[in-house]
Design goal:
The complex is a heterodimer of chains A (about 450) and B (about 190). By secondary structure, chain A is an alpha/beta fold. Chain A has three domains: about 120 residues, no CATH class; about 200 residues, NagB/RpiA/CoA transferase-like (Rossmann fold, 3-Layer(aba) Sandwich), CATH 3.40.50; about 70 residues, no CATH class. Helix content of chain A is about 55%, strand content about 10%. The radius of gyration of chain A is 25 Å and the shape is globular. The relative contact order of chain A is 0.12. Chain B is globular and about 65 Å long. Classes of the chains: A alpha/beta (about 450), B alpha/beta (about 190). Chains A and B meet through helix 2, helix 3, helix 4, strand 1 and helix 8 of A and helix 1, helix 6, strand 8 and strand 9 of B.
Chain lengths: ~450, ~190
């Protein structure tokens, strides 16, 4: 199903769409306020971008350096070419420790690899511990936003879910009550967990350590209470030196939610005595994306979600309409590289307004890449007949001034005198929720000539 | 299996080497009151902050947290501890700790974050599993921004460490901010 038809589903509930739109725009405004407080913000973005560009150009060396330093600290490092290898590695670590109960903090990579259903099929309980992720896990849905996973859910939805799964009392969707109940429920899971899985925000080549950022403290509750910590990272998470965290941690939370930094920025360098720490380094299509000159900068992404919050299409179509682990503008330039056919409608889910590129903390040229993917897609994927015909006709009309003039005249005539039902018909997608502009008698050319004549 | 394949694929696909930029610190220079900005930012992230004399720390904590029973203090600056811990303490046994008091060495003005190293908390889980958290900080140990902070902690023994900025929080239910998710429900910073 295309993005447009999934978005149409989301748009059936107008009140909800309006709320979603406004809530995310509010987050975007918080981002602006927070960014404007930082002396040298634009330079900071430039640094973030240049450091990431250097990383990609020297990625193999940095990964080996990272591995060596991590090993010196007793950390066990694993490499996975794809999702299947990633899932098998994790399963074998858990198996070795007879771990049956696992707590997981936010990791888009494990979503991408579909780790949860795999481990569940092996009889292992996996509990997502970020509140938003727990909500969508209970609802058996994927996250709809990478930073705000349950942004598509109302508080009443959460109330019902918690009644069903946590045995809470009906509260009409009282957030304080629901969070307190979730805290109790998940505390019990933390205390009983055999192993903790976390994502990685940054992996530091010159120390071999990883940094994980959360607001809830769930990564730390998991890691410090269990025997085994498994951190999963895509190869692009590497940064060269620890001091570069001073650049990226200044950018990340401000871009994501407008906070000056996340509540917890945890630096894991080695396991506690008697415990184990593992790092799984994953490719899963990333080296292929690295080979595409036009699209490799998409690997700069630090997963802040700012491009989603600002995108007029995302805000009014919802994360699920993208049908990909990473939704929104960044997801629309990452996904075609994974499966061009399946995700061919995503680069068209944009107005190309460029707002995503403007807020990106590492300056990815997202809207330009969207445009470039469109060019690849129309060459390689079959396009709908209507679209092809319209564009072909438009091409002919636009290349012939006389024809263009006549088309303009007849369009103006029709818009003025044709019955409304004829103009706002099914073919006019633009007119679905909008009125067409008031029609003037002349076009620009006529107006300009008249003006010149009248001096 | 995966390792060689991944490294070879990167070698084949990576672009020509691009330079690693030097960071021009001048671009971030600001003349501000570090302590005032730090205090404002702690309030912004939902924490409380007080500036007091060294000899009134316990008095201050008692007045802020009057009814706490299970208290862990891992700093010599407070004698309020009722539960003793050392580095071999099983973190699961801290499940019912009401209040943890610890001392940290570094605060960051730009975001109200405080660096808490494994040595500061003795048991790594302590600042997260406790219901409420008090951090004592020397008011002269506040730096401007994160780049300076990493200079200051550069030569540490790298084990575990965390920047903590405010109490734990979530806005995952309809974007309503609720303080007290999985970590500490409140944070009080005592500047001495």
């Amino acid at each position: 199903m295309s993005h447009a038809s999934k978005a149409a589903e989301f748009n059936k509930d107008e009140a909800k769409v309006n709320w979603h739109d406004k809530a995310l725009w509010y987050v975007r405004e918080k981002r602006d306020k927070s960014a404007h407080n930082v002396q040298g913000w634009e330079y900071l973005r430039q640094l973030g971008s240049s450091i990431k560009a250097n990383v990609l150009s020297n990625l193999d060396e940095y990964l080996v350096q990272f591995e060596n330093n991590a090993k010196k600290n007793g950390v066990q490092v694993h490499w996975a070419s794809n999702a299947e290898e990633h899932n098998n590695i994790i399963n074998s670590i858990l198996d070795k420790h007879h771990a049956k109960k696992v707590v997981k903090s936010k990791s888009m990579l494990t979503e991408e690899c579909h780790l949860n259903p795999f481990l569940e099929s092996k009889g292992i309980e996996v509990v997502d511990t970020d509140l938003g992720e727990r909500i969508v896990q209970l609802a058996e849905e994927p996250p709809s936003h990478i930073v705000l996973p349950a942004i598509h859910k109302t508080k009443e939805d959460v109330d019902e879910l918690f009644q069903e799964h946590l045995g809470t009392k009906p509260s009409g969707g009282n957030p304080e009550y629901l969070v307190a109940e979730a805290r109790k429920h998940l505390r019990d899971k933390f205390l009983k967990a055999d192993a903790a899985i976390t994502g990685v925000n940054f992996a530091v080549a010159d120390t071999g350590g990883v940094v994980v950022c959360t607001n809830e403290g769930n990564a730390d509750m998991g890691v410090h209470l269990s025997k085994v910590h498994i951190a999963c990272m895509g190869i692009e998470k590497i940064i060269p030196k620890e001091k570069h965290l001073g650049v990226f941690l200044r950018l990340l939370a401000r871009s994501a939610t407008g906070q000056p930094i996340t509540t917890y920025s945890s630096h894991f360098n080695k396991a506690s005595e008697g415990k184990e720490m593992h790092i799984v380094i994953v490719d899963n299509g990333r080296t292929e994306q690295l080979s595409r000159e036009d699209f490799r900068a998409s690997l700069h992404c630090i997963r802040c979600g700012a491009c989603m919050n600002t995108c007029p299409i995302y805000r009014r179509s919802g994360g699920h309409s993208y049908d990909y682990t990473i939704p929104g503008p960044i997801g629309s330039i990452l996904s075609p590289g994974k499966d061009l056919k399946k995700h061919s409608s995503l680069p068209f889910a944009s107005t190309l307004c460029g707002s995503c590129s403007n807020v990106c903390p590492v300056k990815i040229n997202i809207h330009e890449q969207l445009y470039k993917w469109r060019q690849v897609i129309v060459k390689e994927e079959k396009q709908p007949v209507i679209k092809k015909t319209i564009l072909k006709t438009a091409g002919v009309v636009l290349s012939k001034p006389g024809l263009y003039n006549m088309a303009g005249k007849s369009a103006r005539f029709m818009l003025k005198y044709a019955p409304k039902a004829m103009i706002y018909n099914k073919l006019n997608a633009w007119g679905k929720a909008r009125d067409l502009p008031e029609v003037k008698n002349d076009n620009f050319d006529d107006w300009y000539k008249k003006r010149k004549k009248n001096g | 299996m995966g390792r060689e394949a991944i490294l070879n694929s990167i070698k084949k696909n990576k672009p020509e080497l691009l330079p690693l930029p030097e960071i021009n610190r001048e671009a971030f220079h600001e003349v501000i009151d570090l302590k005032d900005t730090f205090k404002n930012n702690i309030a912004l992230v939902g924490g409380q902050v007080v500036e007091i004399e060294k000899n009134s720390i316990d008095e201050e904590i008692k007045s802020k947290y009057p009814d706490k029973e299970h208290i862990v203090s891992v700093t010599k600056k407070s004698k309020l501890g009722t539960v003793m811990v050392d580095s071999s303490t099983d973190p699961h046994s801290l499940e019912h700790i009401d209040l943890a008091i610890l001392e940290a060495e570094l605060g960051v003005s730009e975001n109200g974050a405080i660096w808490v190293a494994a040595d500061n908390s003795v048991v790594k889980a302590l600042p997260f599993i406790t219901n409420d958290l008090v951090i004592i900080l020397d008011k002269n140990n506040i730096c401007l921004h994160m780049l300076e902070a990493y200079d200051k902690i550069e030569s540490r023994d790298r084990n575990f460490g965390v920047f903590i900025s405010g109490p734990s929080k979530t806005a995952d239910i309809e974007q309503c901010l609720v303080v007290g998710a999985h970590g500490a429900m409140s944070l009080t910073v005592i500047l001495v």
